[in-house]
Protein backbone atom coordinates (compact mmCIF):
# COMPACT_ATOMS: atom_id res chain seq x y z
CA UNK A 1 0.00 0.00 0.00
CA UNK A 2 1.78 2.81 -0.98
CA UNK A 3 0.97 6.00 0.29
CA UNK A 4 0.62 9.36 -0.64
CA UNK A 5 -2.24 11.53 -0.95
CA UNK A 6 -2.58 10.02 -4.27
CA UNK A 7 -2.16 6.65 -2.99
CA UNK A 8 1.32 5.87 -3.10
CA UNK A 9 1.52 2.99 -1.01
CA UNK A 10 -0.81 3.25 0.29
CA UNK A 11 -2.55 4.51 -2.06
CA UNK A 12 -2.69 1.89 -4.17
CA UNK A 13 -2.06 -1.44 -2.91
CA UNK A 14 1.48 -1.96 -3.30
CA UNK A 15 3.34 -4.91 -3.70
CA UNK A 16 4.62 -6.76 -0.79
CA UNK A 17 5.26 -4.42 2.06
CA UNK A 18 7.59 -4.61 4.80
CA UNK A 19 8.63 -3.52 8.18
CA UNK A 20 11.32 -4.10 10.62
CA UNK A 21 13.10 -7.32 10.88
CA UNK A 22 12.98 -9.65 13.78
CA UNK A 23 15.62 -12.30 14.37
CA UNK A 24 14.15 -15.77 14.91
CA UNK A 25 15.83 -16.25 18.25
CA UNK A 26 14.80 -12.82 19.43
CA UNK A 27 11.26 -13.45 18.36
CA UNK A 28 10.83 -16.20 20.86
CA UNK A 29 8.76 -13.66 22.73
CA UNK A 30 7.08 -10.45 21.68
CA UNK A 31 8.94 -8.57 24.34
CA UNK A 32 12.05 -8.92 22.23
CA UNK A 33 10.25 -7.69 19.15
CA UNK A 34 9.38 -4.47 20.87
CA UNK A 35 13.04 -3.86 21.57
CA UNK A 36 13.60 -2.90 17.94
CA UNK A 37 14.90 0.63 17.81
CA UNK A 38 12.69 3.33 16.43
CA UNK A 39 13.73 5.96 13.93
CA UNK A 40 16.40 8.43 14.97
CA UNK A 41 14.95 11.53 16.57
CA UNK A 42 15.70 15.01 15.25
CA UNK A 43 14.35 17.48 17.74
CA UNK A 44 16.38 20.38 16.46
CA UNK A 45 16.49 22.13 13.10
CA UNK A 46 19.63 21.62 11.00
CA UNK A 47 20.95 22.94 7.71
CA UNK A 48 19.67 19.85 5.88
CA UNK A 49 16.35 19.80 7.78
CA UNK A 50 15.39 23.41 8.60
CA UNK A 51 12.33 22.32 10.53
CA UNK A 52 12.04 20.72 13.94
CA UNK A 53 10.93 17.12 14.37
CA UNK A 54 8.95 16.57 17.56
CA UNK A 55 8.78 13.17 19.22
CA UNK A 56 5.19 13.89 20.22
CA UNK A 57 2.73 16.53 21.39
CA UNK A 58 2.05 17.41 25.05
CA UNK A 59 -0.01 14.80 26.89
CA UNK A 60 -3.68 15.61 27.44
CA UNK A 61 -4.47 17.44 30.67
CA UNK A 62 -8.06 16.20 30.86
CA UNK A 63 -11.06 14.72 29.04
CA UNK A 64 -13.14 16.17 26.20
CA UNK A 65 -16.76 15.90 25.18
CA UNK A 66 -15.65 15.78 21.55
CA UNK A 67 -13.17 17.07 18.99
CA UNK A 68 -13.33 17.57 15.22
CA UNK A 69 -10.65 16.40 12.80
CA UNK A 70 -10.21 17.56 9.20
CA UNK A 71 -9.49 14.95 6.51
CA UNK A 72 -8.93 15.67 2.83
CA UNK A 73 -11.31 13.04 1.46
CA UNK A 74 -14.18 10.78 2.42
CA UNK A 75 -13.24 7.10 2.62
CA UNK A 76 -15.08 5.00 0.01
CA UNK A 77 -15.31 2.28 2.67
CA UNK A 78 -14.01 1.51 6.14
CA UNK A 79 -13.75 -2.22 5.50
CA UNK A 80 -10.32 -3.08 6.85
CA UNK A 81 -9.38 -5.21 3.83
CA UNK A 82 -9.64 -2.05 1.70
CA UNK A 83 -7.83 0.27 4.13
CA UNK A 84 -4.94 1.24 1.91
CA UNK A 85 -4.84 5.03 2.01
CA UNK A 86 -4.71 7.98 4.38
CA UNK A 87 -8.43 8.79 4.82
CA UNK A 88 -9.45 5.21 5.58
CA UNK A 89 -6.62 4.39 7.95
CA UNK A 90 -6.68 7.73 9.78
CA UNK A 91 -10.20 6.88 10.93
CA UNK A 92 -10.13 3.08 11.02
CA UNK A 93 -7.04 2.90 13.25
CA UNK A 94 -9.22 4.11 16.13
CA UNK A 95 -12.02 1.61 15.55
CA UNK A 96 -10.33 -1.62 14.48
CA UNK A 97 -7.19 -3.12 16.01
CA UNK A 98 -4.57 -5.52 14.73
CA UNK A 99 -2.75 -8.50 16.19
CA UNK A 100 0.31 -6.32 16.70
CA UNK A 101 0.56 -2.56 17.23
CA UNK A 102 2.71 0.10 15.57
CA UNK A 103 3.63 2.55 18.32
CA UNK A 104 4.05 6.33 18.07
CA UNK A 105 7.80 5.61 18.18
CA UNK A 106 7.35 3.44 15.05
CA UNK A 107 8.32 0.24 16.85
CA UNK A 108 6.23 -2.91 17.21
CA UNK A 109 4.35 -3.82 20.39
CA UNK A 110 1.67 -6.32 21.42
CA UNK A 111 -1.80 -5.58 20.11
CA UNK A 112 -4.71 -8.00 20.26
CA UNK A 113 -2.05 -10.68 20.51
CA UNK A 114 -0.28 -10.36 23.83
CA UNK A 115 2.52 -12.57 22.55
CA UNK A 116 3.91 -13.60 19.17
CA UNK A 117 6.40 -16.46 18.90
CA UNK A 118 8.36 -17.96 16.04
CA UNK A 119 9.09 -21.61 16.95
CA UNK A 120 10.51 -22.30 13.50
CA UNK A 121 11.22 -20.10 10.44
CA UNK A 122 7.90 -20.98 8.80
CA UNK A 123 5.62 -20.73 11.83
CA UNK A 124 4.16 -17.80 13.75
CA UNK A 125 2.03 -18.38 16.83
CA UNK A 126 -0.19 -15.57 18.15
CA UNK A 127 -1.50 -15.88 21.70
CA UNK A 128 -4.50 -13.59 22.08
CA UNK A 129 -5.58 -11.36 24.94
CA UNK A 130 -8.39 -12.77 27.04
CA UNK A 131 -11.61 -10.87 27.66
CA UNK A 132 -11.40 -8.51 24.67
CA UNK A 133 -14.88 -7.38 23.62
CA UNK A 134 -16.15 -6.39 20.19
CA UNK A 135 -18.34 -3.31 19.95
CA UNK A 136 -21.47 -5.49 20.01
CA UNK A 137 -20.39 -6.97 23.35
CA UNK A 138 -19.26 -10.38 22.10
CA UNK A 139 -15.86 -11.69 23.22
CA UNK A 140 -13.04 -12.04 20.69
CA UNK A 141 -11.90 -15.59 19.99
CA UNK A 142 -9.37 -17.36 17.80
CA UNK A 143 -12.19 -18.07 15.33
CA UNK A 144 -12.58 -14.33 14.71
CA UNK A 145 -8.86 -13.99 13.96
CA UNK A 146 -8.85 -16.89 11.51
CA UNK A 147 -11.90 -15.45 9.77
CA UNK A 148 -10.51 -11.90 9.64
CA UNK A 149 -7.15 -12.91 8.14
CA UNK A 150 -8.98 -15.26 5.80
CA UNK A 151 -10.87 -12.32 4.30
CA UNK A 152 -7.51 -10.75 3.40
CA UNK A 153 -6.36 -13.96 1.74
CA UNK A 154 -9.52 -14.71 -0.27
CA UNK A 155 -8.79 -13.59 -3.87
CA UNK A 156 -12.50 -13.04 -4.47
CA UNK A 157 -12.43 -10.14 -1.97
CA UNK A 158 -9.82 -8.13 -3.85
CA UNK A 159 -8.18 -7.15 -0.56
CA UNK A 160 -5.66 -4.32 -0.75
CA UNK A 161 -3.41 -6.25 1.62
CA UNK A 162 -3.61 -9.59 -0.16
CA UNK A 163 0.01 -9.48 -1.29
CA UNK A 164 1.19 -9.54 2.32
CA UNK A 165 -0.26 -13.03 2.54
CA UNK A 166 1.35 -14.56 -0.55
CA UNK A 167 3.65 -16.69 1.60
CA UNK A 168 0.91 -17.86 3.98
CA UNK A 169 0.14 -21.56 3.72
CA UNK A 170 -2.54 -21.66 6.41
CA UNK A 171 -4.09 -19.78 9.33
CA UNK A 172 -5.54 -22.09 11.96
CA UNK A 173 -7.02 -22.03 15.42
CA UNK A 174 -4.70 -23.97 17.72
CA UNK A 175 -6.40 -23.04 20.99
CA UNK A 176 -9.35 -20.96 22.26
CA UNK A 177 -7.05 -17.92 22.27
CA UNK A 178 -4.30 -19.05 19.95
CA UNK A 179 -3.83 -18.80 16.18
CA UNK A 180 -0.97 -20.38 14.24
CA UNK A 181 0.17 -19.13 10.86
CA UNK A 182 2.12 -21.52 8.65
CA UNK A 183 4.25 -19.96 5.92
CA UNK A 184 5.30 -21.45 2.61
CA UNK A 185 8.77 -20.05 3.22
CA UNK A 186 10.36 -17.81 5.85
CA UNK A 187 8.99 -14.27 5.56
CA UNK A 188 10.40 -11.47 7.71
CA UNK A 189 7.83 -9.03 6.41
CA UNK A 190 4.66 -10.91 7.30
CA UNK A 191 4.97 -10.53 11.09
CA UNK A 192 5.63 -6.83 10.67
CA UNK A 193 2.50 -6.30 8.62
CA UNK A 194 0.44 -7.78 11.41
CA UNK A 195 0.76 -4.32 13.01
CA UNK A 196 -1.00 -2.71 10.01
CA UNK A 197 -4.53 -3.02 8.67
CA UNK A 198 -3.42 -6.40 7.28
CA UNK A 199 -3.61 -7.77 10.83
CA UNK A 200 -6.99 -6.29 11.82
CA UNK A 201 -9.41 -8.52 13.74
CA UNK A 202 -13.16 -7.98 13.34
CA UNK A 203 -16.12 -9.98 14.61
CA UNK A 204 -17.00 -12.78 12.23
CA UNK A 205 -20.64 -12.53 13.26
CA UNK A 206 -20.65 -8.77 12.71
CA UNK A 207 -19.07 -8.94 9.27
CA UNK A 208 -21.39 -11.70 8.10
CA UNK A 209 -24.45 -9.92 9.45
CA UNK A 210 -23.58 -6.73 7.55
CA UNK A 211 -22.86 -8.62 4.34
CA UNK A 212 -22.14 -6.42 1.33
CA UNK A 213 -22.81 -3.31 3.45
CA UNK A 214 -19.89 -4.02 5.77
CA UNK A 215 -17.63 -0.99 5.93
CA UNK A 216 -20.10 1.43 4.38
CA UNK A 217 -22.86 1.56 6.99
CA UNK A 218 -23.75 0.25 10.42
CA UNK A 219 -21.19 -1.15 12.85
CA UNK A 220 -17.67 -2.25 11.98
CA UNK A 221 -17.80 -4.54 15.03
CA UNK A 222 -14.15 -4.31 15.97
CA UNK A 223 -12.36 -3.92 19.32
CA UNK A 224 -10.90 -0.40 19.26
CA UNK A 225 -11.32 2.46 21.76
CA UNK A 226 -13.96 4.02 19.48
CA UNK A 227 -16.92 2.52 17.66
CA UNK A 228 -18.48 3.76 14.46
CA UNK A 229 -21.29 6.23 15.05
CA UNK A 230 -23.15 8.33 12.49
CA UNK A 231 -21.79 8.50 8.93
CA UNK A 232 -23.21 11.51 7.14
CA UNK A 233 -22.29 10.69 3.56
CA UNK A 234 -20.32 13.46 1.91
CA UNK A 235 -19.93 15.36 5.17
CA UNK A 236 -18.54 13.56 8.20
CA UNK A 237 -18.02 10.40 10.23
CA UNK A 238 -18.60 10.36 13.97
CA UNK A 239 -16.83 7.93 16.28
CA UNK A 240 -18.13 7.25 19.79
CA UNK A 241 -16.04 6.16 22.75
CA UNK A 242 -16.33 2.42 23.44
CA UNK A 243 -16.63 2.06 27.19
CA UNK A 244 -16.08 -1.71 27.00
CA UNK A 245 -12.57 -1.23 25.61
CA UNK A 246 -9.94 -3.59 27.03
CA UNK A 247 -7.21 -0.94 27.21
CA UNK A 248 -6.99 2.66 28.35
CA UNK A 249 -10.28 4.39 27.58
CA UNK A 250 -10.40 7.25 25.07
CA UNK A 251 -10.11 10.70 26.60
CA UNK A 252 -12.80 12.14 24.32
CA UNK A 253 -16.39 10.92 24.22
CA UNK A 254 -16.58 11.61 20.48
CA UNK A 255 -14.28 12.20 17.52
CA UNK A 256 -15.83 13.76 14.43
CA UNK A 257 -14.01 13.52 11.09
CA UNK A 258 -15.12 16.17 8.61
CA UNK A 259 -14.37 15.87 4.88
CA UNK A 260 -12.79 19.01 3.44
CA UNK A 261 -11.45 18.27 -0.03
CA UNK A 262 -10.39 21.83 -0.83
CA UNK A 263 -6.98 22.68 0.72
CA UNK A 264 -8.00 26.29 1.41
CA UNK A 265 -11.21 25.21 3.11
CA UNK A 266 -9.28 22.74 5.23
CA UNK A 267 -6.80 25.41 6.26
CA UNK A 268 -9.52 27.90 7.08
CA UNK A 269 -11.33 25.32 9.19
CA UNK A 270 -8.19 24.86 11.26
CA UNK A 271 -7.70 28.59 11.61
CA UNK A 272 -11.25 29.42 12.67
CA UNK A 273 -11.71 26.43 14.96
CA UNK A 274 -14.26 24.63 12.82
CA UNK A 275 -11.77 21.77 12.97
CA UNK A 276 -9.62 21.18 16.04
CA UNK A 277 -6.83 19.46 14.17
CA UNK A 278 -5.67 17.48 11.19
CA UNK A 279 -2.91 15.48 9.54
CA UNK A 280 -1.71 15.96 5.94
CA UNK A 281 -1.73 19.72 6.25
CA UNK A 282 -1.59 21.53 2.87
CA UNK A 283 2.08 22.41 2.41
CA UNK A 284 1.17 25.88 1.17
CA UNK A 285 -0.40 26.53 4.57
CA UNK A 286 2.55 25.56 6.78
CA UNK A 287 3.77 29.11 7.26
CA UNK A 288 0.33 30.60 7.73
CA UNK A 289 -0.73 28.02 10.30
CA UNK A 290 2.52 28.12 12.24
CA UNK A 291 2.25 31.89 12.64
CA UNK A 292 -1.50 32.09 13.18
CA UNK A 293 -1.68 31.73 16.94
CA UNK A 294 -4.70 29.45 16.41
CA UNK A 295 -2.72 26.40 17.46
CA UNK A 296 0.57 24.61 16.88
CA UNK A 297 1.97 22.96 13.75
CA UNK A 298 4.12 19.94 14.62
CA UNK A 299 6.38 17.84 12.41
CA UNK A 300 7.25 14.21 13.12
CA UNK A 301 8.81 11.20 11.47
CA UNK A 302 6.90 10.34 8.32
CA UNK A 303 8.84 7.50 6.61
CA UNK A 304 7.70 9.24 3.42
CA UNK A 305 9.60 10.05 0.25
CA UNK A 306 8.43 12.16 -2.66
CA UNK A 307 9.32 10.50 -5.95
CA UNK A 308 8.70 10.50 -9.67
CA UNK A 309 7.20 7.11 -10.46
CA UNK A 310 8.25 5.63 -13.81
CA UNK A 311 5.30 4.03 -15.59
CA UNK A 312 6.75 3.47 -19.05
CA UNK A 313 10.24 2.29 -19.89
CA UNK A 314 9.45 1.24 -23.43
CA UNK A 315 9.77 4.72 -24.86
CA UNK A 316 12.19 7.58 -24.27
CA UNK A 317 12.59 6.70 -20.59
CA UNK A 318 13.71 3.20 -21.50
CA UNK A 319 17.23 4.58 -21.77
CA UNK A 320 18.63 4.92 -18.26
CA UNK A 321 20.69 7.89 -19.42
CA UNK A 322 17.51 9.88 -19.97
CA UNK A 323 16.23 8.97 -16.51
CA UNK A 324 19.56 10.00 -15.03
CA UNK A 325 19.47 13.24 -16.96
CA UNK A 326 16.06 14.17 -15.59
CA UNK A 327 17.27 13.35 -12.10
CA UNK A 328 20.39 15.47 -12.52
CA UNK A 329 18.44 18.43 -13.91
CA UNK A 330 15.79 18.41 -11.20
CA UNK A 331 15.93 21.29 -8.72
CA UNK A 332 15.14 19.27 -5.60
CA UNK A 333 15.93 22.00 -3.13
CA UNK A 334 13.75 24.45 -5.00
CA UNK A 335 10.91 21.94 -4.92
CA UNK A 336 11.30 21.37 -1.18
CA UNK A 337 11.09 25.10 -0.59
CA UNK A 338 8.10 25.73 -2.86
CA UNK A 339 6.29 22.39 -2.97
CA UNK A 340 6.80 21.23 0.61
CA UNK A 341 6.75 24.59 2.34
CA UNK A 342 10.41 24.14 3.30
CA UNK A 343 9.54 21.13 5.47
CA UNK A 344 11.47 18.40 3.74
CA UNK A 345 14.96 17.30 2.78
CA UNK A 346 16.27 16.92 -0.76
CA UNK A 347 17.46 13.36 -1.34
CA UNK A 348 18.72 10.96 -3.96
CA UNK A 349 17.66 7.98 -1.86
CA UNK A 350 14.40 6.14 -2.45
CA UNK A 351 14.23 5.22 1.23
CA UNK A 352 14.26 7.49 4.26
CA UNK A 353 17.11 7.28 6.72
CA UNK A 354 14.63 6.43 9.48
CA UNK A 355 13.60 3.07 8.03
CA UNK A 356 17.18 1.86 8.49
CA UNK A 357 17.04 2.48 12.25
CA UNK A 358 17.22 -1.22 13.07
CA UNK A 359 20.36 -1.79 11.00
CA UNK A 360 23.92 -1.67 12.38
CA UNK A 361 25.61 1.67 11.75
CA UNK A 362 27.97 0.18 9.19
CA UNK A 363 25.06 -1.19 7.17
CA UNK A 364 23.14 2.10 7.39
CA UNK A 365 26.17 3.94 6.09
CA UNK A 366 26.63 1.49 3.22
CA UNK A 367 23.00 1.95 2.13
CA UNK A 368 23.63 5.62 1.41
CA UNK A 369 27.30 5.56 0.43
CA UNK A 370 27.90 6.21 -3.23
CA UNK A 371 24.41 7.48 -4.02
CA UNK A 372 24.34 10.39 -6.50
CA UNK A 373 24.32 13.92 -5.15
CA UNK A 374 20.84 15.45 -4.91
CA UNK A 375 22.24 18.70 -6.27
CA UNK A 376 21.28 19.98 -9.71
CA UNK A 377 23.75 19.57 -12.60
CA UNK A 378 22.12 20.75 -15.81
CA UNK A 379 25.23 20.58 -18.00
CA UNK A 380 25.93 16.95 -17.16
CA UNK A 381 22.25 16.18 -17.77
CA UNK A 382 22.34 17.79 -21.22
CA UNK A 383 25.28 15.62 -22.21
CA UNK A 384 23.43 12.48 -21.19
CA UNK A 385 20.37 13.43 -23.27
CA UNK A 386 22.59 14.09 -26.27
CA UNK A 387 24.41 10.78 -25.82
CA UNK A 388 21.06 8.98 -25.68
CA UNK A 389 19.89 10.70 -28.85
CA UNK A 390 16.84 11.97 -27.01
CA UNK A 391 17.12 15.71 -27.67
CA UNK A 392 13.72 17.08 -28.71
CA UNK A 393 11.82 13.94 -27.75
CA UNK A 394 8.65 14.02 -25.67
CA UNK A 395 7.68 12.37 -22.38
CA UNK A 396 4.35 12.76 -20.59
CA UNK A 397 4.07 13.61 -16.91
CA UNK A 398 0.78 13.44 -15.00
CA UNK A 399 -0.17 16.32 -12.73
CA UNK A 400 -3.15 17.28 -10.59
CA UNK A 401 -4.48 20.08 -8.41
CA UNK A 402 -4.75 17.59 -5.54
CA UNK A 403 -2.04 19.57 -3.75
CA UNK A 404 0.92 21.78 -4.52
CA UNK A 405 3.29 18.94 -3.64
CA UNK A 406 1.91 17.16 -6.71
CA UNK A 407 1.43 20.06 -9.11
CA UNK A 408 4.73 21.78 -8.34
CA UNK A 409 6.73 18.57 -8.67
CA UNK A 410 5.26 18.05 -12.12
CA UNK A 411 6.18 21.61 -13.01
CA UNK A 412 9.71 21.09 -11.67
CA UNK A 413 10.14 18.00 -13.84
CA UNK A 414 8.85 19.90 -16.87
CA UNK A 415 11.34 22.69 -16.18
CA UNK A 416 14.16 20.17 -15.81
CA UNK A 417 13.27 18.63 -19.15
CA UNK A 418 13.18 22.00 -20.90
CA UNK A 419 16.66 22.83 -19.61
CA UNK A 420 18.18 19.66 -21.07
CA UNK A 421 16.39 19.41 -24.40
CA UNK A 422 13.48 17.16 -23.51
CA UNK A 423 9.85 18.06 -24.02
CA UNK A 424 7.90 17.20 -20.89
CA UNK A 425 4.19 17.38 -21.62
CA UNK A 426 1.94 17.71 -18.56
CA UNK A 427 -1.34 15.80 -18.49
CA UNK A 428 -3.76 17.10 -15.86
CA UNK A 429 -5.71 14.50 -13.88
CA UNK A 430 -8.72 15.48 -11.76
CA UNK A 431 -8.06 15.07 -8.00
CA UNK A 432 -10.75 12.42 -7.59
CA UNK A 433 -9.29 10.45 -10.50
CA UNK A 434 -5.63 10.71 -9.52
CA UNK A 435 -5.92 7.61 -7.34
CA UNK A 436 -6.74 5.60 -10.45
CA UNK A 437 -3.14 5.96 -11.56
CA UNK A 438 -2.25 3.53 -8.79
CA UNK A 439 -4.97 1.01 -9.43
CA UNK A 440 -5.99 1.08 -13.08
CA UNK A 441 -3.54 0.34 -15.94
CA UNK A 442 -5.91 2.11 -18.33
CA UNK A 443 -5.52 5.32 -16.35
CA UNK A 444 -1.76 5.18 -16.96
CA UNK A 445 -2.09 4.80 -20.72
CA UNK A 446 -0.08 7.49 -22.48
CA UNK A 447 1.65 8.55 -19.26
CA UNK A 448 5.39 8.01 -18.72
CA UNK A 449 5.67 9.17 -15.11
CA UNK A 450 3.74 10.77 -12.27
CA UNK A 451 4.42 12.25 -8.79
CA UNK A 452 4.12 9.82 -5.93
CA UNK A 453 4.62 10.29 -2.22
CA UNK A 454 5.33 6.86 -0.86
CA UNK A 455 5.04 6.04 2.83
CA UNK A 456 6.30 2.90 4.46
CA UNK A 457 3.77 0.96 6.51
CA UNK A 458 6.51 -0.71 8.50
CA UNK A 459 9.91 0.51 9.66
CA UNK A 460 11.86 -1.46 7.08
CA UNK A 461 13.39 -0.38 3.73
CA UNK A 462 12.09 -3.52 2.06
CA UNK A 463 8.60 -2.05 2.17
CA UNK A 464 9.60 0.24 -0.68
CA UNK A 465 12.41 -1.69 -2.34
CA UNK A 466 10.16 -4.71 -2.98
CA UNK A 467 8.18 -2.59 -5.43
CA UNK A 468 10.71 -3.24 -8.20
CA UNK A 469 10.56 -7.01 -8.10
CA UNK A 470 9.20 -8.58 -11.28
CA UNK A 471 5.40 -8.45 -11.19
CA UNK A 472 5.18 -6.29 -8.06
CA UNK A 473 2.02 -4.21 -7.77
CA UNK A 474 3.69 -0.83 -8.14
CA UNK A 475 6.22 -1.96 -10.71
CA UNK A 476 4.16 -0.14 -13.31
CA UNK A 477 6.98 0.14 -15.84
CA UNK A 478 7.49 -3.61 -15.88
CA UNK A 479 11.11 -3.55 -14.72
CA UNK A 480 12.52 -7.07 -14.50
CA UNK A 481 15.95 -8.17 -13.32
CA UNK A 482 16.51 -11.74 -12.07
CA UNK A 483 19.38 -10.55 -9.87
CA UNK A 484 17.16 -7.93 -8.23
CA UNK A 485 14.37 -10.47 -7.75
CA UNK A 486 16.75 -12.89 -6.08
CA UNK A 487 17.94 -10.25 -3.65
CA UNK A 488 14.35 -9.34 -2.73
CA UNK A 489 13.57 -12.99 -2.03
CA UNK A 490 16.74 -13.29 0.04
CA UNK A 491 15.99 -10.20 2.12
CA UNK A 492 12.37 -11.10 2.78
CA UNK A 493 13.27 -14.62 3.90
CA UNK A 494 15.93 -13.41 6.33
CA UNK A 495 14.81 -12.80 9.93
CA UNK A 496 18.18 -11.56 11.15
CA UNK A 497 17.95 -7.77 10.98
CA UNK A 498 21.59 -7.03 10.18
CA UNK A 499 21.73 -9.65 7.44
CA UNK A 500 18.45 -8.56 5.88
CA UNK A 501 19.42 -4.90 5.94
CA UNK A 502 22.75 -5.74 4.31
CA UNK A 503 20.84 -7.26 1.40
CA UNK A 504 18.48 -4.27 1.35
CA UNK A 505 21.49 -1.97 0.99
CA UNK A 506 22.48 -3.86 -2.16
CA UNK A 507 18.94 -3.43 -3.49
CA UNK A 508 19.00 0.28 -2.75
CA UNK A 509 22.14 0.70 -4.84
CA UNK A 510 20.68 -1.28 -7.74
CA UNK A 511 17.47 0.77 -7.69
CA UNK A 512 19.46 3.99 -7.52
CA UNK A 513 21.73 2.96 -10.39
CA UNK A 514 18.75 2.21 -12.63
CA UNK A 515 16.64 5.13 -11.34
CA UNK A 516 13.53 2.97 -11.23
CA UNK A 517 11.84 5.93 -9.58
CA UNK A 518 13.46 9.34 -9.32
CA UNK A 519 13.79 10.20 -5.60
CA UNK A 520 13.18 13.84 -4.77
CA UNK A 521 12.72 14.51 -1.05
CA UNK A 522 12.03 13.12 2.39
CA UNK A 523 8.80 14.51 3.80
CA UNK A 524 7.91 14.57 7.51
CA UNK A 525 4.45 14.07 8.94
CA UNK A 526 2.64 17.34 9.73
CA UNK A 527 -0.10 17.66 12.33
CA UNK A 528 -1.89 20.83 13.44
CA UNK A 529 -3.53 21.02 16.84
CA UNK A 530 -5.83 23.86 17.83
CA UNK A 531 -5.46 25.40 21.27
CA UNK A 532 -8.12 23.28 22.97
CA UNK A 533 -6.68 19.82 22.23
CA UNK A 534 -3.41 17.91 22.51
CA UNK A 535 -2.04 14.37 22.68
CA UNK A 536 -2.01 13.28 19.02
CA UNK A 537 1.19 11.56 17.86
CA UNK A 538 3.42 13.43 15.44
CA UNK A 539 4.62 10.37 13.53
CA UNK A 540 2.97 8.47 10.70
CA UNK A 541 1.99 5.84 13.29
CA UNK A 542 -1.49 7.39 13.25
CA UNK A 543 -2.34 5.20 10.25
CA UNK A 544 -2.40 2.05 12.40
CA UNK A 545 -2.24 3.27 16.01
CA UNK A 546 -5.43 4.35 17.91
CA UNK A 547 -4.19 7.91 18.14
CA UNK A 548 -7.55 9.61 18.72
CA UNK A 549 -7.83 7.86 22.09
CA UNK A 550 -4.85 9.93 23.28
CA UNK A 551 -6.41 13.26 22.27
CA UNK A 552 -7.77 15.26 25.17
CA UNK A 553 -8.02 18.74 26.59
CA UNK A 554 -4.92 20.94 26.49
CA UNK A 555 -3.61 22.51 29.68
CA UNK A 556 -4.87 26.05 30.29
Structure in a nutshell:
With 556 residues, the chain is of the alpha+beta class.
Low-confidence stretches: 1-49
What is the overall number of helices? Answer: 17
**Portion in helices:** 25-40%
Structural class: alpha+beta
Radius of gyration, CA atoms, in whole angstroms: 22 Å
User: Rough shape?
Assistant: globular
Instruction: Provide the CATH architecture of the domain at 303-526.
Output: Roll
Portion of residues in beta strands equals: 15-25%
CATH class annotation of the domain at 303-526: Alpha Beta
Keywords:
alpha+beta, four-stranded antiparallel sheet
Topology:
Elements: H1 30-33, E1 67-71, H2 86-92, E2 97-98, E3 100-102, E4 108-110, E5 113-120, E6 123-128, H3 142-153, E7 168-175, E8 178-183, H4 190-193, E9 200-201, H5 204-210, E10 226-232, E11 236-241, E12 254-259, H6 263-272, E13 277-279, H7 286-290, E14 295-310, H8 320-329, H9 332-339, E15 345-346, H10 361-368, H11 378-387, E16 394-399, H12 404-420, E17 423-428, H13 431-434, H14 436-439, E18 449-455, H15 462-465, H16 482-492, H17 497-514, E19 517-530, E20 533-534, E21 552-553
Parallel strand pairs: 1-12, 1-13, 16-17
Antiparallel strand pairs: 2-9, 3-4, 5-6, 6-8, 7-8, 10-11, 11-12, 13-19, 14-18, 14-19, 15-19, 20-21
Amino acid sequence: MSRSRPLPRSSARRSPRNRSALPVAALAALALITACAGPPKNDAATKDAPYKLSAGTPAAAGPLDSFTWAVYAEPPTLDYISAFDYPQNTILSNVCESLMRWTPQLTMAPGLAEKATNPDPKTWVYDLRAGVHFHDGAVMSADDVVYSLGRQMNPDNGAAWNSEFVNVESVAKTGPLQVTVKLKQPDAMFPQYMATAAGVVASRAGVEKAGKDYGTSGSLDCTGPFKLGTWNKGQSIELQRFDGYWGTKAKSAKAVFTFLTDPSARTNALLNGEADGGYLIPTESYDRLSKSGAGTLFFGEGLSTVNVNMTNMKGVLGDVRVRRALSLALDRRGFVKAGLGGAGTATSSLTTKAVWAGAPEKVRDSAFAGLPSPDQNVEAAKRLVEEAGATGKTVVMATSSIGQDVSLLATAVQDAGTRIGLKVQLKTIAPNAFTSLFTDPAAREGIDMFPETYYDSVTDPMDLLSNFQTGAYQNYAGYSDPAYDALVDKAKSTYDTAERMTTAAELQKKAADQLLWIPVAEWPTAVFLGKRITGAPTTISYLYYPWAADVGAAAR
